[in-house]
User: Fold this.
Amino acid sequence: EDQVTQSPEALRLQEGESSSLNCSYTVSGLRGLFWYRQDPGKGPEFLFTLYSAGEEKEKERLKATLTKKESFLHITAPKPEDSATYLCAVQASGGSEKLVFGKGTKLTVNP
Amino acid sequence: GAVVSQHPSRVICKSGTSVKIECRSLDFQATTMFWYRQFPKQSLMLMATSNEGSKATYEQGVEKDKFLINHASLTLSTLTVTSAHPEDSSFYICSASGGGPEAFFGQGTRLTVV
Assistant:
């Protein structure tokens, strides 16, 4: 069974304090690993797709990396507006477009 | 980026009534749409997958007669919660895929059954 585990469950940072969120996964053949941002009461907002180990993608203060077992979302010099829940999901190869989500990491950035 | 619009954002209904939620892809054709349910502090749980013009595929444990899904066109899917009960109160979210691996999400619908 495909599984995604995110850690930590919650993370509090001071503005400017860089850190990383972890997403560990087990999947029967990875088609893609996805990162989303979700604000309270809203649907998830797409951030990145990673397809193969060693791949990296960046967007503003965020950088996502991928290995064969996990992905990291690095946040550099975060700002309060980066506060949100960050969700990781995997899509298995084999035809189904189904995403399996982790429970997310709730990030709070204090000014 | 791709835009998915979900309506309504909030709905309150009486126990025993039915509620319809719409999900529209505004700037792309959604060959596949997904419906999720999310409980507080929990992950998104996939309820069903629908492809345009065919019957939805429901996940194990999801009652197909209670959660009716219609994907009538390449831009519209609807979820109808029939004979709603308080335990159906939740946050329902749709997503749409245009054939590529990425899926884009609607804003979600907060359903409260009283």
About this structure: Chain B touches chain A through 25 residues (CB under 8 Å). The radius of gyration of chain B is 13 Å. Chain B has no helices and eleven strands. Chain B has a mean pLDDT of 93.
